[in-house]
Amino acid sequence: MIRLTINGKTHNVDVDPNTPLLWAIREQVGLTGTKYGCGIAQCGACTVHIDGSPIRSCAIPAGAAAGRKITTIEGLASGGKLHKVQKAWIDHEVPQCGYCQAGMIMAAAALLQAKPRPSDADIDAAMTNICRCGTFQEVRKAIHAAAKA
Amino acid sequence: MNLNPKISRRSFIIGSAAVGSGLALGLRLPPFGPAVVRAADGSPEIGAWVVIRPDDTVVVRVVRSEMGQGTITGLAQLVAEELECNWSKIVIEYPTPGESVKRKRVWGDFSTGGSRGIRTSHDYVRKGGAAARMMLVQAAANQWGVPVSECSAANSVITHGPSKRRITYGKVAEAAARLEVPKDVKLKDPKAWKVIGKPMKRLDTANKVTGKQVYGFDLKLPGMLNAAIKECPVFGGKVKSFDAARVASLGGVKKVLQVGDTAVAVVAETWWQAKTALDQLPVVWDEGPNAKVSSASIAEQLKAGLDAEQAFVGNKEGDAKAALAAAAKKVEAVYAYPYQNHACMEPMNATARYTPDKCEVWVPTQDGEASFAAVLAASGLPADKCEVYKINLGGGFGRRGAFQDYVTQAVRIAKEMPGTPVKLLWSREEDMVQGRYHPVMQCKLVGGFDAGNNLTGLHMRLSGQSILAAVRPAIVEQQKGRDPLVFQGVADAGEHSIGYAFPSLLVDHAMRNPHVPPGFWRGVNINQNAVFIECFMDELAEAAGQDPVEFRRKFMAKYPRNLAALNAVAERIGWSKPAPAGMFRGVAQMKAFNSFVAAACEISVKDGNKVKVHRIVAATDCGYAVNPAQIERQVSGSFVYGLSALFMQECTVKDGAVEQKNFDTYQSMRIAQMPKVETIILQGGGDTWGGIGEPTICVAAPAVLNAFYKATGKRIRTVPLKNHGIELV
After folding, report:
1. Distance in Å, alpha carbon of A31 to nearest chain B alpha carbon
2. ipTM of this model?
3. A77: distance to nearest CA of chain B, Å?
4. Domains along chain B?
5. Helices (H) then strands (E): counts for chain B
6. Which of A142, B24, B182, B441 is exposed most, by the fewest CB atoms within 10 A?
7. Does A123 touch chain B (CB under 8 A)?
8. Contact criterion met (CB below 8 Å) for B264 and B239
């Protein structure tokens, strides 16, 4: 049994501690907004925040996340109000298929937390997520817009 | 025009008898005609495409699949334009393939590929919207007892001009649904469009930023189990044996089974348990006849076709071979294009529940009907006992349309566990090695010049794999062995015709089909053909001592729309003036999926191999632009797909299997490598609309390759550029 604190709620999860956090979140806790894309920390679709930092949840064992503060895409909005990154994503119509966007948004939210006014170079360095639809042009615009919001 | 109540022979007979035996027989008799067709919530259908709810919600039926390209929004705009409805009241509903079969395909083709979503359905969906509007207005006129000609509709409200009476669609929907669907429907002149052509916001954004959107991977059903699968990595191979006992007792494992002749699967409580067990499952493969095939042997096979006697002709103008024989000067080059995987962000998956009475499948699919056909075949059940529920796609790009292998697998697994829903998810590794790959192609081009340095003839010999031979063999058979699709972009006629009139031209294809299964990959054969013809045009221009744009223009007088696209990008990039210091430019143009496309780019190159693509100007003439904001996104997005392919992506074959198993060895562009894309939308009109999702992808690669030559003096003729030590930065 592992104790996972996700989006402010504690879950006692009956899972092999070596199970990747991604799959514990999806299959034991039942939050499917966090996506599987590669399983080897390449694509970033599984990005969540652990103690505020963006982490690729496919590459960290669930056991290692026990007792830490985990935020998923479902917990990004607070008090019924969308996070400014989510709002910018809607305003700029960033998503195409949308599958990678939860990870993209979590990475962008963490970037803005660390650098409230990121430069293009900051965005290039922080946003290493893969998007096969190719939404990058809108991602960049939306991050800048969220920074000003 | 007055619309009449529906009169069928049956309803007439019942209606005539209503006073007598009809009621006694317990028949439910509507005031006019037969029963109204109703949506699941009971709201009436106003023709097949529109349902109006009492609260004025407008439900638009869409059977094409939304995989990010914006199709549902564009199709809704087409319906809304003619329906004159309130845009903010629109919701989308996907009829199922099973319903479509029952209703004799009333919604037409479900297939969502070939950039056809809008261009081949605009006519009938607009007519569906117009017919519904006519029925609603007629119903209001009937209610008021006024001539329909005195009534008009706007924003979901019908107004009687003389009396100023108003009523909303929701109030007359029941009455409208009882009217005959009009057949004689006149569509608006495009000049009068108010919704088509506007950058309406996508209808499907909100759930994609909160994690609420449910993709196939995310589906949950009561009592559902999860399956992981491994198919023989050598194409054409089979399962010889596997030791189920070794993993049967691992945590959560419910079943270990063979799937068809070629695959093994583990079913477990969770997918992670299934995958973990599958990774440990000892499997012996019978690798079959292809176990020694390699990329090198495939390349040799194709190379032999470059000079082969036998070839299928795709385009012939004059006598190019004679012109080349008589040429004072010849230019020759050989190009090559590799296997590539679609690599959708969401790997292949399908969920199936089988009982002898019903087989149901939930699947992210580009073609609900193709999925349905796969369910029928795999379940062995008749059509009225099968159903497919389309679910959101995490990318498609051609992998999820013609190919339904994952559906077949899911049904076969579910059939072994009747009554239990089983969700089959492919790992990324499975997705990479079981693709339906962009086919391999080599191309030898020879251009001839006379003594005055005028181009007299061009021979373009393609040698390589036919998608249709593998996927649509009936078409190839009908063409006596020829695959017409390999000539996309250089064909003599049709939606992929060449945009140059050369003094003589021969395009032919030596078909060479390796064992690796080919597929339709965003853009399909225009990707390699654009590299071949458009890079070689630059080679010819150089041989002729002319500017690449000027050289092209000389052969484009008969192709004004191709020329307009080329001119648009040349002008925007400033082709007539020198490039900024350190910048180098390239262009390309093509006709694809009935759109005329061109690109001009600016790149810089550091250390001879680090390429920065600063800017791409792209023009697309699709005839009519339904949603310019989404067109811009498709164009810039397609370049991410196309430039990833150009610089980074190749599926190599070793011992009969694909070597790249994940994004570490099969890379894809990141935001840092993204050029600034400026999209120019041209609207040349015409009767035949052009596509958007694919066409423009093909011009980015040759434009960048041509610019790379300008920058370095090196002609790169084989893709991907990583094989030449060149990287995108």
Report:
1. 8
2. 0.98
3. 8
4. 1-35 (no CATH), 36-206 (3.30.365.10), 216-288+348-425 (3.30.365.10), 295-340+437-728 (3.30.365.10)
5. 20, 27
6. B24
7. yes
8. yes
